[in-house]
Amino acid sequence: MLNKLLTLVLVREPSRVLLGLKKKGFGEGKWNGFGGKVEPGETILEGAKRELLEESGVVSNSLEEIGLLKFEFVGDPQILEVHVFTSNTFEGEIKESDGSTRIFLHFAEMRPQWFYTDKIPLHQMWADDKYWFPMFLKGSKFKGYFLFEGHEKIVKYQLDEVEKLNS
Ligand SMILES: CNc1ncnc2c1ncn2[C@@H]1O[C@H](COP(=O)(O)OP(=O)(O)OP(=O)(O)O)[C@@H](O)[C@H]1O
Questions:
Q1: Whole-structure pTM value
Q2: Which residues 6+ apart lie within 8 Å of 135 measured at CB?
Q3: Which position among 6, 33, 61, 141 has the lowest Cβ density within 10 Å, counted as fewest Cβ atoms?
Q4: What ipTM goes with this model?
Q5: Which residues form the domain of 9?
Q6: How far is the CA of 6 from the centre of ligand 1 (A)?
Q7: Domain for residue 62, yes or no?
């Protein structure tokens, strides 16, 4: 079976990272970067850029691929292949939840919010994030594999910092 291709985009400033609270679907109730399935006919980079725009309202022309994560769930043959990107610039306005945008955001799939790098809400994120987020924050690239049992428990994993992502 082919891997399911997904993207994950982490927009950052020197001391803050933009995350979104997933309000429905896979990973509901968790803070995460922006992303989703790569659609037929688009490259992985194009998919990352599209999902970032759809979910956060901003455009980035400086996405850099920094991580490759593979996830398997016990009892499910489908491997998720998540391509992780970062960007330290963007154009447009973040659909943040303040004032007049509140009603609109009630219907959106993600609720974007900035988090200081020393206050990342790891306890409200996917369990794998606490392993690779520190690598991302210090500017390293990484490759990993995580075997989940249910959505909260990791039964096995492997994670390496790499110089290059030759994928
Ligand atoms: C298991 N450990 C994990 N750790 C960190 N991040 C994870 C993850 N597993 C999936 N992700 C991310 O979660 C999003 C799902 O997106 P998902 O809702 O499935 O995609 P998309 O928006 O295209 O779906 P619909 O259009 O709603 O069907 C997508 O960014 C993907 O990279």
A1: 0.94
A2: 67, 141, 142, 159, 161
A3: 61
A4: 0.94
A5: 4-162
A6: 6
A7: yes
